[in-house]
Design a protein that fits this description.
It is a multi-pass membrane protein. Its main location: membrane. It is found in: Endomembrane system. InterPro entries: Aquaporin-like, Aquaporin_transptr, MIP. There is one protein chain. With about 220 residues, the protein is mainly alpha-helical. The protein has a single domain, classed as Glycerol uptake facilitator protein, CATH 1.20.1080.10. About 70% of the residues lie in helices and about 0% in strands. It is built from 8 helices and no strands. Helix 5 packs parallel to helix 8. The longest helix has 28 residues. The termini are far apart.
Length: about 220
C-alpha cells in the first residue's frame, strides 16, 4: 500500500473537518442569524468537498468518510486491511483538522462540545443523509467515468444541510472530530455513538438501494 493514498485520505478528511468547524466559528462571528450561519457552513462545505474530491479522488478514491470506506469494503472494492487503515487515517485526520480550526480561531485546541444531539428525529436524519450520500456516489460514479461525482456529492451534502433536522453530519470520522469543538458545528461526545450507528445503517441502506437500482432484474 502506498503512503500517498493514506496521506490523501488524511489531508482530505482533515481539511473537510477544518472547513466545517472553521466556517461555523466564522459564521457565528459574522452574524447572529442562525439561518445565515447555516448557509455559510453549508456553502463552505459544498465548495471544499467538490475541490477535495476532484483533487484527491485519483489518488485514494476520496473517501474521507468511514461510511464510504465500509461500503467499499462490503462491495469488495478494497481489502479489509486497506479499509482499516483508511478508517484510522480518517479519524485521525478529522481530529487534527478540528484541532487546527480551534487554534486558528483562538479557541482551546481540544474543546468539549455541549451540543447534545440524541433525539430520534436527528438519528433518522443521519440515516437518510448517509443513505443518500452512498446512493449518489454509487449511481453517479457509474456515469461518465465518475466525472460528476465531486459536483453530485457536494450537491447532496449541501442540500441535505437544509432538509435534514441534524444538518447532515453523514460521516463518522468528522462527527467524532466535531465533538472536540464547542462551537456551532460541535456535537456532544456522548451523542457521537448514536450518530455513527445511524450513519452506518444509512450507508448499508444506500448500498442496498444502489444495488437494487443497478440490477437488471
Amino acid at each position: 500500500m502506498k503512503l500517498r493514498i493514506f496521506l490523501a485520505e488524511f489531508i482530505g478528511t482533515a481539511v473537510l473537518a477544518m472547513a466545517i468547524v472553521g466556517s461555523g466559528v466564522m459564521a457565528t462571528n459574522l452574524t447572529k442569524d442562525v439561518g445565515l450561519q447555516l448557509f455559510i457552513v453549508a456553502f463552505a462545505t459544498v465548495l471544499i468537498l467538490a475541490v477535495l474530491i476532484q483533487m484527491l479522488g485519483p489518488i485514494s478514491g476520496a473517501h474521507f468518510n468511514p461510511a464510504v470506506t465500509v461500503v467499499a469494503f462490503i462491495d469488495k472494492s478494497i481489502s479489509a486491511l486497506t479499509a482499516i487503515n483508511y478508517v484510522l487515517t480518517q479519524f485521525i485526520g478529522a481530529f487534527i483538522g478540528v484541532v487546527i480550526a480551534n487554534v486558528m480561531f483562538d479557541l482551546p485546541a481540544i474543546g468539549d462540545s455541549t451540543h447534545a444531539k440524541t433525539s430520534s428525529n436527528l438519528l433518522l436524519s443521519e440515516v437518510i443523509a448517509t443513505a443518500g450520500l452512498i446512493l449518489v456516489i454509487h449511481m453517479v460514479g457509474k456515469q461518465k467515468e465518475g466525472r460528476y461525482v465531486p459536483l453530485a456529492v457536494a450537491g447532496w451534502i449541501g442540500s441535505a444541510y437544509f432538509f435534514t433536522s441534524s444538518t447532515t453530519f453523514a460521516n463518522p470520522a468528522v462527527t467524532f472530530g466535531r465533538a472536540f469543538s464547542d462551537t456551532f458545528a460541535g456535537i456532544e461526545l456522548s451523542s457521537v455513538p448514536g450518530f455513527v450507528i445511524a450513519q452506518l445503517l444509512g450507508a448499508l441502506i444506500g448500498l442496498g438501494l444502489a444495488k437494487g437500482l443497478s440490477s437488471e432484474r
